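User: I'm curious whether this sequence folds into something compact or stays loose and floppy. Could you predict its structure so I can see for myself?
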Amino acid sequence: PVSGWQQVFDRVGMTLHLPYGYRLIAAPGADRASGSWLSGWTLLDVFLAAMLVLLASRLLGWAGAGLAAAYLLFGYQEDGAPVWTLLVVLALGLLARALPPGRLMRFAQGLRVLTVLVLLIVAVPFCAGQLRQALYPQLENSQAGFVGGLGVASKVAMQAQPGGAGAVSDMPADTVASMAPPPAPAPLEEMQARANASTSERLDTRVVTGSNLRPAELISKYSQSTVVQTGAGEPGWQIGNRYNLNWSGPVLADQQVSLVIAPPWLVRPLRVLLVGLLGMLLWRLLGATPWRRPSAAGTATGLALVCASLLSVPFARAADYPSDALLQQLQARVTEAPPCIPNCVSIASAEVSAGGAQLRVNLEIHALARVAVPVPIDDTAVLLRNVMIDGRTIDAMERSDYARIAVDQGVHQVGLVYAVAGDRVALSFPMLPARVVFSGAEWQASGLDEDRLMSGTLNLVRLRTSAGQSVQPTAQQFPPYVNLRRFLYLDLNWRIENNVYRMAPRQGGFTTHLPLLPGEHVTTPGLKASDGKVTVALADNEGELKWDSVLEQAETITLEAPDLADHREEWLIIVSPTWHVEFSGVPEIVQQQNGFPDDYHAHQFYPLPGESLTLHISRPEPVAGPSRAIDHLWLSSEFGLRAQTHVLQFDLRASQGGEQVIQLPGTTELLGVTRARSPLTLRPIDGKLRLPVSPGTQQYEVRFRESIPVGVSLATPVVTLGLPAANINLIATLPNDRWLLAAFGPAVGPAVLFWGELVVAIALAWLLARWRRGPLRFHHWLLLVLGFSTFSWLALLVVVGWLLALDWRRRSAPQRNWLFNLVQIGLALLSVIALVCLFESIRNGLLGSPDMVVRGNGSFGNHLQWFADRSTDALPTASVVSLPLWVYNLVMLFWALWLAWAVVGWLRQGFAAWMSGGYWRPWRVARPESAIDLPQTPPPPA
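Assistant: Here's the prediction. I'll summarize afterward.
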């Protein structure tokens, strides 16, 4: 089925992931299958293919048309396939055949020869790529794979967050904000940096509407005793072929789709067949193309182009030092905060006295380091006049969000003197004192309860007096009226978040008593709860207040709305999938998620005065299943001459705590174990390592060593995890003095392309030996190809071109003097370049390491990487075959001796060929005397 739901959808889209080697031919039933073979054919493509077949039938006959049709059928959709160049070659061939003899026909034939050469240049790398993909399907695209690209990045990102998903808070955002400690005192260096900031930076305005954490991150779903299915690890699907299937609406419930997929046993032979078809088509085109012997001018031009291309080597440039990352690291070390942050300072007591137009505050500050401490302030009603620390007046203060003063380590007495400019003062304390004492006959204070500041603000109101009368407080015009919004979280631990919003009076501070639910216990410090009620205080200009509490679990919960004259209530109940709740009483207004996970349900109620809501709660029985899964795993093996060091890293996701047993090889020496970058003291017994597991996601790292000397065959260790794993990455690093020959392991891994290129090079040596005009025999060409195979194919082509050019010079020479001299100069330059290539090949063979052309999944050189999407119990293994590097150097020594002996003969023959017919000619040839016209002597007079 397309959707799998018994409903009609407007549109449906899905992504199909296939491993390397698989191809999607078609998707019958899908409106659009992007990337499939059938969807790649448009009407323009069909028309172009038909034109190619028609032109091939006119030029090559029906056999050639059949080859062209088969080639286009299998290769038209392949990247880099020569299609347009083939069309131009066929069209020029028919044009040259139709033209009458003459200059225009010769021009068309020359242009045809040029396009055939271009076709060969395009076809050779295309055929090489098809053969590589047939042998190594993991090379089908140019991406580095899971390890070389997203996997390492993911790994680094996961290591940078040791807490993982299991380290999130269990409280909502508002609870975190209310229970958070006061603003951390800034170090003195940071305070000075803030003081030097521009005015625009200090006046930056930020509007915060809630927590930066999603509600889903603030919920604790399950306890350690609850066995919850984690499911198996899901592969990242970052490798392979990807196809997008789409349906436009309406999509019915019974609509079906089928997938026609070509497996690797069909795709890989078809790639080889495609190369054969293109080769036979090119062979027929070469046979139908009239070739002429290249002229001396063309040869000289070719030699000049070769020399120019070999000399165009880019220059290297060193990077700047130090780098930006290093500078940032050094800056972080210099400006490092004290280790006690954010608990470097506290205010033990605050004595506030008000009299007349002056306000005094005495603070007792305890500091563990030199820090900046925020002081009480009210920007609208008071002005800080004087600051004294331990009896000494100070002038330097830093102002950003709060006024701050710098204090040294120790206990200090700080005196603050304010000038009061009004009848109301809302003195805000950024850091809550442990004890607050107020004194003042002309002022009334609110917000204090038993010398404790209930909120962060101390509200002071000046008392009005009449002449000869005692001081009397002003009567309150309106009784306090608030809106109480309760958030009930029925999760692992039941809790309530209570938000109180001011409705009346609009100004002034007041205290009110709000009821608690049965079984509710306040957890927010600073609030007083007794007799089933909690006392809350709202300061002047304070619009809301929040507190948190826990709720005892019960089968029934009853919520009752108060009378209209008391206060107003709203209820939002969030139910986790662990519980089943039935409601009775107040009707539900709307059901919304509000950013919670899909398996959570939020129910909202707006009761009228006197209404009640009853919750009947039950817990469904959980379904048994696996409680642990490994989402990502890396096994890095570094092979040394006498031992092997392995590092096993994996991300374990668990819903229940306990132990996880890992079976290591019997000859293992454990080097260390860490969990979330914290070391663990563990010791394997009989190769079994028991790892402590906590609920949530955690990262483990196990380092161990095996005393196995390096040999011809090396393999990664056999590790049994005891549970399935996904996204498995195997990394093997060989020593620099090893000669890699082959690599084996999971399908997505390195491919040693040297052997395939060597087969092509041997075939090239055989073709050069079969050429009647070739200067060397087969065994000479074979030895030359084998020596250059591990160095550079481009250098080999230069040497082969040099030998062929000298052989051509031995057999013929240009007739024109200027052209002869250019050929001599070109041969001399080509000889120098060829000798440099020969010397570099010998030096690399004796002192360097061979280039085995290792590609695939981010592998290179002696660094090999494999990827497997899943494993059941034991990890897959990878192995490599290598030899000591001195074996390669010894073989290259014998080859260098042969090459030195052969080069002496080649130079002797080449010099003789270069000197044949002279080594230099004058640029201009003097005319013979017989050709000089002498003036006629007049006859003597008679």
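Summary: The domain at 628-744 is CATH 2.60.40.1730 (Immunoglobulin-like). The chain has 15 helices and 45 strands.
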